[in-house]
Amino acid sequence: MTVAGRRFVASWSGGKDSCLALYRTLKVGGQPLVLFNMFDEVGARSRSHGVRPEVMQAQAAALGLPLVTANASWQSYEEVFVESMQRFRADGTQFAVFGDIDLDAHREWEEKVCARAGLEASLPLWQEQRIDLVNEFVAAGFKAVIVVVNEQLMPSDGYLGATLDVALIEKMIADGIDPCGEAGEFHTLVVDGPLFGHPLPLVEMARHHRDGYAMLEFGLATPT
Question: Could you tell me the pTM of the whole model?
C-alpha cells in the first residue's frame, strides 16, 4: 500500500513493536494523526500492557503526538475499537498501523476491523525475522523496559524491569525465549529513543503477581 503523504492512526500499546511500526511508517513519509490505545472498562490500565493512563499520556507527549483512548471490556473490545476507527476515518485518517509480526489471527482481526471502519490496515513488520526486528529496535537507539511477564512461558526473575538491550536479547536466546515475545511471553514499555523529545520521567511504584503474570507498575516521577 502507498504510505507517503497519507494520514494514519497508530494502534499504540506503548511497547517496542508498535513503536518500531510507527518509526518505520514515519521514515517512509506517513503522516501521523493520533496514537490510539484501548484501556480497561474504567480507564485505569491499558488493556495490552497494564500501563497507567498518565504514563501513556507522558509517552505520547514525549513523542509529540496526541493520544486517544477508549475504555472497553474484553467482550465489547471489538465494537469499541471499530467505533473509534470510524471516528478517525471521519477526521481524515486513511489507514491504521499495527505492530504485529507473524500471528495470522492478529492480522485477520486487524484487517477485519479496519475494513468495517473503511480504513486500510498496515503491518510494516509483517513476516520479518523476529530477531532482526528486535535488533533493529535496539540498534536504532530505542530503550524499552519489560513491564509484564507471562510466568507460564518465562521466569520473571531477571527479566521483569530489565531494559531490552543486546545483552538481554542474548540471555533470552540462551534461555530459549523468543526475544520479540510475539506469543505474549512479555510486554515492554518504550521509555526513550529517536522519536522521543526526552526520556520518560518514570518511577517504579510496585510489582504485582496475578493470574500467572508478573507486572511492573510505573508512575511519573515528581519534578524536583
Answer: 0.95
Q: Distance between alpha carbon 46 and the CA centroid of its chain, in Å?
A: 10
Q: For residues 131-165, b (16+ Cβ closer than 10 Å) or e, as one string? A: eebbebbbeeebbbbbbbbbbeebebeebbebebe
Q: Tell me: the pLDDT tens digits for 16-26?
A: 999 999 999 99
Separation CA 119–CA 128 (nearest Å):
23
Q: Which residues pair with 218 in a beta bridge?
A: 204
Beta strands 7-11; 95-97: pairing state: parallel
pLDDT of residue 182: 86
> Would you say residue 224 has pLDDT above 60?
no
Exposed/middle/buried for residue 40 (C-beta within 10 Å: 0-12, 13-18, 19+): middle
Cell of 10: 497508530
Q: What is the mean pLDDT of residues 160-175?
A: 96
Question: 27-41, pLDDT tens digit by residue?
Answer: 999 999 999 999 999
Grid coordinates standing for 180? 520479540
Helix, strand, or coil here: 152? coil
